[in-house]
Amino acid sequence: MFDAQAFSSSLNGISSQKMLEIETNSFDSQPDSIVGIDDVQKSLNRSRASVYRYTNTDTRNLNPPFNPRKLNPEFRQDQKDPLLFHTNEVARFAKDILRIKEVTVEVLNSPSTATQNVLVAILEELKVISTRLDAMASNDKDIFNE
Question: How much is the pTM?
Answer without folding.
Answer: 0.53
